[in-house]
Amino acid sequence: MFSLLQRFQTVSNQAVTYACLIAAFIALSSWLQLIQNDAFSVPAIVSNIKPTLNVRTSRYYGSQNGKPKQNSKLAFDLEADLERLFNWNTKQVFVYLTAEYNGSERPETKSEVTYWDKIITKKSDAHLSLHDIKSKYSVWDLEDKLEGRELTFKLKWNIQPRVGPLIYGETVGNQTVILPNMKQSQKKKKPKQNST
Amino acid sequence: MNIRLELSRFLKLCFVLSSAFMFWKGLSIVTNSHSPIVVVLSGSMEPAFQRGDVLFLWNRNEMSKIGDIVIYEVEGKSIPIVHRVLREHHSETKNKQLLLTKGDNNAGNDIPLYANRKLYLQKDKDIVGTVKGYVPQLGYITIWISENKYAKFAMMGLLGLSALLGND
Amino acid sequence: MSEILEEIKHKLVFPIDFPSQRRTERIQNVILAMGSLLSCLVGFYMQSLTHLMVIYGLSIVIALIVVLPAYPSYTRRKLEWARSKIVT
Amino acid sequence: GSMSKAINVYSIPELQQTLDEALPGTFARLQYKRSFRLIDTKLAVGYSIAAVAAVSFLLDKKFQFSEVLGYQQLLLAAYAVLSLAFWYFTRYVEKGVTYEGTKPDGEKITVKTRFANNEPVYLVQFVKEGGAELETRLAANKVFSEAGYLQTDLLFGWLKEQLETLGRKKLQ
């Protein structure tokens, strides 16, 4: 405390130390709030999934050297209330619909792909009740064909905090769908659908 | 005798620099990432990350999960990119994983950004780290200094002044 | 040049007496500790990071105002120093 | 030059540094011969720490992260071990010793110095070979001028007095 500069340094050093403690308090308390609100077991209903397949030859749809690549899209309904993910440390919630599946030529290959996602920044927008919305992405696989694969859909979320660790979780409730054959898909737009 | 005095004084300066550097190096060895703390430079992940936000990375995970926000480097480009994993394909037998990424704020995926007309990133080769922690805006000082020449001069002047006026 | 710098350096020191050094250190500790505690409580209660930051920022400003300047009361108990001898 | 730099006399670290650095010269005026055992060890360990960091820094500049990862891990381990050794040395071997020396007649002396918290009093402990000990206090305002100069003659006089007291102690 012996000179102006040194007094300024001690104040700012200590201010930074306390700021770190405050940040830790914010991260920890908001995490406890999430647990208290059962944020890790939010139910979600993904239903009425209608997959379609088509063939693409562009590089931006996974085709290499013009080889035809099967691409898959969806339409689906979604009902989920993500309000519980919001507290004072939630900057945004990134919610995304993913599908897991195995390879057909090489069954040891596991894949997970995103069909749809949404950024929610306000608690008032967190109640999702969507009907017959289209997938955002056209999905292709490492293999050329996707037809006949069994897809397990999950709705996952990621909380981006204002300060602290990123938090990931998924909603409760899976949905399994078998992709149609290419011919079926072209003839009639009604695919097979299994629910679990 | 005076040599020892000068050496002792110089050693203090060495300690300041070496401890800062070795802390960084230690962090990068523990996290297995060559730059364990990064500052966001682009707005392609808004509103999650803005320019100047500080990200803490971890790179000991063998596989990335879908939805993870990863930092990757493209051959021939110096600036690392912070984007989200949109798809992942991995083999259960071989330890290899392919990733497709996308910026939250971008319309399309990152295929146009990848080197050599590749369609995927490789987890073990291209990924610098996965974002685990976040502090907003703290890194704006570094951006400001590196991009604004007046700020650069002001900073240099301030450092020079404090070195001259400081007591060491 | 270096003499001018020495001169400036000496003007900018603004020393305070030893008892005040002890006191300002303690006051600064108390202000910042109280400020951070209060900011956490209010911020959590209001569920608002803005409130938290405003309160904590205010406590830093108060600490700076109290501690930084060499107020006359901080320089009253200066010591009697040795007489300087003429250097030959 | 003959005149040292002016310090802020209200700064304990500056007072301590100036006094610690002036002690060897003052002892030399009293015909003591300084022993460099402790300071040389400290400098050797200290500069090997700096050297390890410098090598790590150069490797980092010249090579890719993955190319030299093994070496960097070794360097980091060496840095940690040496830092621990340095800490151990200052804490348990040096223990605040600022000066070690011998009188022309071969008598050894060790001097430990420190300042109490925010108190302008230089606490000095003289230990003579054989166990005779003297703990004394020097008020900083007795040897510094208001302008921030150490009055070396006053320090010399004080030190001489203390050493005489210490010498008498042995006789008792």
TrEMBL record, chain A:
| Keyword Cell division annotated | no
Q: Where in the cell is it found?
A: Endoplasmic reticulum membrane
What Pfam families does the record tag this protein with? SPC22
Q: What is this protein called?
A: Signal peptidase subunit 3
Q: Which organism is it from?
A: Torulaspora globosa
Q: Does the keyword Membrane apply?
A: yes
Entry's PANTHER family? MICROSOMAL SIGNAL PEPTIDASE 23 KD SUBUNIT SPC22/23, SIGNAL PEPTIDASE COMPLEX SUBUNIT 3
Q: What does this protein do?
A: Essential component of the signal peptidase complex (SPC) which catalyzes the cleavage of N-terminal signal sequences from nascent proteins as they are translocated into the lumen of the endoplasmic reticulum. Essential for the SPC catalytic activity, possibly by stabilizing and positioning the active center of the complex close to the lumenal surface. Essential for viability.
Primary localisation category: endoplasmic reticulum
Mention one GO biological process in which this protein takes part, according to its record.
Answer: protein targeting to ER
Keyword list, A-Z: Endoplasmic reticulum, Membrane, Signal-anchor, Transmembrane, Transmembrane helix
Please list every transmembrane segment annotated in the UniProt record, as residue ranges: 15-35
* Any single GO CC term annotated in Swiss-Prot or TrEMBL for this entry: signal peptidase complex
The record describes its membrane topology as:
Single-pass type II membrane protein
What family, per the record? Answer: Belongs to the SPCS3 family.
TrEMBL record, chain B:
Q: How does it sit in the membrane?
A: Single-pass type II membrane protein
Primary localization: endoplasmic reticulum
One Pfam family name from the record?
Peptidase_S24
- List the catalysed reactions: Cleavage of hydrophobic, N-terminal signal or leader sequences from secreted and periplasmic proteins
GO molecular-function annotation terms?
serine-type endopeptidase activity; signal peptidase activity
| Localization per Swiss-Prot or TrEMBL | Endoplasmic reticulum membrane
User: What Enzyme Commission number does this protein have?
Assistant: 3.4.21.89
Keywords (alphabetical) are: Endoplasmic reticulum, Hydrolase, Membrane, Protease, Signal-anchor, Transmembrane, Transmembrane helix
Query: What Gene Ontology cellular-component terms does the record carry?
Result: signal peptidase complex
Q: What range(s) does the Peptidase S24/S26A/S26B/S26C domain occupy?
A: 30-115
EC supergroup of this enzyme: hydrolase
Q: Which InterPro entries match?
A: LexA/Signal_pep-like_sf, Pept_S26A_signal_pept_1_Ser-AS, Peptidase_S24_S26A/B/C, Peptidase_S26, Peptidase_S26B
One Gene Ontology biological process: signal peptide processing
UniProt xrefs under CDD domains: S26_SPase_I
What this protein is reported to do is described as: Catalytic component of the signal peptidase complex (SPC) which catalyzes the cleavage of N-terminal signal sequences from nascent proteins as they are translocated into the lumen of the endoplasmic reticulum. Specifically cleaves N-terminal signal peptides that contain a hydrophobic alpha-helix (h-region) shorter than 18-20 amino acids.
SUBUNIT field: Component of the signal peptidase complex (SPC) composed of a catalytic subunit SEC11 and three accessory subunits SPC1, SPC2 and SPC3. The complex induces a local thinning of the ER membrane which is used to measure the length of the signal peptide (SP) h-region of protein substrates. This ensures the selectivity of the complex towards h-regions shorter than 18-20 amino acids. SPC associates with the translocon complex.
Name the family the entry cites: Belongs to the peptidase S26B family.
Q: What is this protein identified as?
A: Signal peptidase complex catalytic subunit SEC11
Originating organism: Torulaspora globosa
Automatic annotation (TrEMBL), chain C:
Protein role? Component of the signal peptidase complex (SPC) which catalyzes the cleavage of N-terminal signal sequences from nascent proteins as they are translocated into the lumen of the endoplasmic reticulum. Dispensable for SPC enzymatic activity.
Keyword list (alphabetical) reads: Endoplasmic reticulum, Membrane, Transmembrane, Transmembrane helix
Query: Which family is it part of?
Result: Belongs to the SPCS1 family.
Q: Which InterPro entries match?
A: Spc1/SPCS1 (IPR009542)
KW Hydrolase (keyword) present: no
**Transmembrane intervals:** 30-47, 53-74
**Upper lineage:** Eukaryota, Fungi, Dikarya, Ascomycota, Saccharomycotina
Q: Which membrane topology describes this protein? A: Multi-pass membrane protein
Cellular component GO terms, alphabetically? signal peptidase complex
Organism equals Torulaspora globosa
**Where does this protein reside within or beyond the cell?**
Endoplasmic reticulum membrane
Task: Tell me one Pfam family matched here.
Answer: SPC12
Q: How is this protein named in the record?
A: Signal peptidase complex subunit 1
The Gene Ontology biological process terms listed for this entry are: protein targeting to ER; signal peptide processing
